[in-house]
């Protein structure tokens, strides 16, 4: 009986491993299927930008002939943090997709360190940008392995440094198997805020000059939001960062805030100067504050 049990047990193990691996591969294909194909030009440079100055110069873009961005111009100097805010559907995530060259602009140009993104190989371009997406893809592996995905040849020390910057160390220390703890299918064993901090650690580990943060729309409790905010602040040090924000409290400290409305920039400036303008940003700010005040009142 024992002789039969061991091989069956082993087969069960192999089956689970293969099923896990297939699930991960499937997910990779899901991601790739969502990435539209743009071609590298024959003369594209494979030298990845290292400084990280981003410039959108009069960029217009349509999805299937539907105008989405209209003559958008802004610049993010090296090491600075710029935030893009605006109503749902204003075109915020599209800005990130264009920076990443998932699509080509219809007119205008996007440059990094003065080089048009169409003049770079996709590999060189993507090496320069680390993204923390809205919905992070986590594999059913350990937390450390999920972070290592940012740079497969990273050492354990480098991974630990990234977890510190992402304010994950205390959480990891509280787990039974520390960093070797499995995150479950699609990271189900982690909260939304923890998942985003794993994504921040992964992005930091990549070591790219540009950090892009696409804030999750789902609401977080204020503790998780504060943890992400601190993680983001530390992770952004030494990087040029572009943040797409839904909660304006996330981007008060941005060097520049760009306010998009129906694909056009209608205002830009710091948090204080935008509040003083009493325009769209100030309205969005007051609406969000009234909502959070009434949510607090409901709890009290
Ligand atoms: P949200 O705050 O809701 O995330 P957003 O400002 O990030 O919105 P985008 O995701 O940039 O908005 O979308 C801008 C517009 O482009 C929306 O009207 C959206 O429906 C449309 N859109 C987005 N992706 C595609 C696509 N792949 N094909 C066609 N239209 C799209």
From TrEMBL:
Record field: transmembrane: 1-15
Topological type in the membrane: Multi-pass membrane protein
Main location: membrane
Subcellular location: Cell membrane
Domain of life: Bacteria
Keywords, in A-Z order: ATP-binding, Membrane, Nucleotide-binding, Transmembrane, Transmembrane helix
Residue intervals of the ABC transporter domain: 54-287
Keyword ATP-binding: yes
Name listed for the protein in its UniProt record: ABC transporter
């Amino acid at each position: 009986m024992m002789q039969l049990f061991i091989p069956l047990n082993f087969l069960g193990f192999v089956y689970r491993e293969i099923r896990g691996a297939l699930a991960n591969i499937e997910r990779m294909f899901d991601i790739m299927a969502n990435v539209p194909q743009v071609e590298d030009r024959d003369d594209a440079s494979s030298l990845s930008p290292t400084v990280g100055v981003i410039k959108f110069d009069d960029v217009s873009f349509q999805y299937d002939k539907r105008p989405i961005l209209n003559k958008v111009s802004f610049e993010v100097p090296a090491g600075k943090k710029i935030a893009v805010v605006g109503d749902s559907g204003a075109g915020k995530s599209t800005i990130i997709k264009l920076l990443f060259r998932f699509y080509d602009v219809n007119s205008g140009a996007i440059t990094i360190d003065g080089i048009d993104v169409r003049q770079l190989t996709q590999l060189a371009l993507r090496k320069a940008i680390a993204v923390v997406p809205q919905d992070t893809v986590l594999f059913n592996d350990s937390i450390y392995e999920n972070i290592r995905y940012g740079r497969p040849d990273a050492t354990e020390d480098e991974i630990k440094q990234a977890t510190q910057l992402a304010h994950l160390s205390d959480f990891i220390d509280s787990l039974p198997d520390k960093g070797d703890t499995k995150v479950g299918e699609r990271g189900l064993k982690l909260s939304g805020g923890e998942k985003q901090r794993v994504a921040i650690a992964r992005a930091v580990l990549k070591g790219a000059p540009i950090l892009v943060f696409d804030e999750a729309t789902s609401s977080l409790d204020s503790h998780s939001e504060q943890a992400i905010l601190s993680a983001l602040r530390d992770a952004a040090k030494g990087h040029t960062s572009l943040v797409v924000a839904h909660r304006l409290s996330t981007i008060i400290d941005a060097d520049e805030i760009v306010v998009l409305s129906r694909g056009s920039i209608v205002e830009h400036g710091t948090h204080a100067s935008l509040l003083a303008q009493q325009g769209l940003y100030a309205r969005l700010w007051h609406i969000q504050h009234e909502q959070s005040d009434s949510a607090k009142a409901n709890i009290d």
